[in-house]
TrEMBL record:
Source organism: Absidia repens
Coiled coil: none
Keywords: Phosphoprotein, Two-component regulatory system
Domain Response regulatory span(s) in chain numbering: 40-172
An annotated GO BP: phosphorelay signal transduction system
Protein name (database record): CheY-like superfamily
InterPro entries on file: CheY-like_superfamily, Sig_transdc_resp-reg_receiver
Positions bearing 4-aspartylphosphate: 91
SUPFAM superfamilies xrefs: CheY-like
A Pfam family annotated for this UniProt entry: Response_reg
Taxonomy, superkingdom: Eukaryota
Length: 182
């Protein structure tokens, strides 16, 4: 049984499965011997398999050890209430509070369609955090919506490792002290 959210502090323990290999390209040898990153990432997706694929890709690319997982927008906001993050990878189509409403709330928009009486306040430090939409709905119209609610980038599912790497490097900057320079 899965917890509502999980804080990960260790690298993936199992080898990639066929699903990993088909969905995410194999690692480059130049990326496999890097020191661990201090980057703090929040992964939000209602599908546990997608969360594990993202977790493995981020660990392989950047040796990121601090990844928190949430299975919907409400859980993500609870984590954001107490923890500053460097980046959020946010699924769009989730039950309950979807990714669009979650991004709007993070950015300070209190006028969302989800009942807000139980939603926590977000740390000010997280209001400007880069948010990456992770979605199957990446049409031009959808991307405009994501941008209008404050998302900084969009990745299409299935995630392609080189695109994930490129987006994070672009959003966090090549010289970011929390991201390993590549």
């Amino acid at each position: 049984m899965l917890n509502s959210y999980t804080t990960l502090s260790s690298p993936p323990s199992s080898p990639p499965t066929a699903l990993d290999i088909d969905t995410i390209a194999p690692p480059s040898s130049a990326l496999t011997c890097r020191p661990r990153s201090s980057l703090k990432v929040l992964l939000v997706d209602d599908n546990p398999i997608n969360l594990q694929l993202l977790r493995r890709a981020l660990y392989t690319l950047f040796k990121i050890n601090h990844m928190d997982m949430a299975y919907d927008g409400h859980q993500a906001l609870k984590l954001l209430e107490h923890q500053p993050y460097d980046v959020i990878l946010l699924d769009i189509d989730m039950p309950g509070m979807n990714g669009v409403d979650t991004a709007r709330w993070i950015r300070g928009d209190q006028e969302i369609s989800t009942p807000s009486s139980t939603l926590p306040l977000v740390l000010d430090a997280n209001k400007t955090i880069p948010i990456v939409a992770v979605t199957t709905s990446d049409s031009l119209e959808a991307r405009i919506i994501y941008q209008n609610v404050g998302m900084d980038a969009c990745l299409s599912k299935p995630i392609i490792r080189s695109q994930l790497k490129s987006q994070l490097l672009q959003l966090l900057g090549h010289s970011s002290s929390s991201l390993i320079s590549l």
